[in-house]
Structure prediction request, 227 residues.
Amino acid sequence: SMRRCFVYTPPDYDKDITKRYPVLYLQHGGGEDETGWPNQGKTNLIMDNLIADGKARPFIIVMDNGTWRWPENVPRPRQGERPAGAWPPKGWTDGFMKTLVQDIIPMIDTNYRTLADQPHRAMAGLSMGGMQTRAITLAHPDLFSHVGIFSGGSISPEDIDNAPGFKEKIKLVFISYGSRELENPRRGFGGDPRANTDALKEAGINTHFYVSPLTAHEWQSWRRSLH
Prediction:
């Protein structure tokens, strides 16, 4: 099917046509689409200001549509019923993962001046997009070196044990939440995010846990997390 993505390029992208840039694949949350980060997330304003202040090296950001369909091999619950078993259902991110790996990344590397290798490729997302980031980067540590999960669960030591190469290849795991989210016992997929992040740090993985002050499951938390 036809689909689109929004691509942020740094301010000097068209001035030096020999320069190549790292890439961040940045995903929206449930019920949103590829317009979420450009519009509500203020991605371009945040990045332009960080670059102007010398607080970030310029890089490209790709914002695509991660909306998923119910896996064909998983029974669909009847309307009004609570889904049985683990949530999200097994295989829920397979469709978008295939599109990202086989279509989106090659298209970006072909049409933009990217540093097209694992050390210069990152993935992050909010809520549902964070859960997609978690699943995709655990499955493909050969493609991504930096991982950002905003209000979308965390990565546990058990996840690392089941993801060959992740510990050796990933340069940074960044987990963030709004402070009011952490007051709620329902902390998302994958267990206690702070405890998981601390455990990864003890295991020798570069990690950072950020808490957005006085915010909940909302865009202000995620703008600050991107920053």
Q: What stands out?
A: The chain has a mean pLDDT of 92. The radius of gyration is 17 Å. The beta strands are 6-8, 23-27, 60-63, 121-126, 146-150, 172-178, 207-212. The first strand starts at residue 6 and ends at 8.
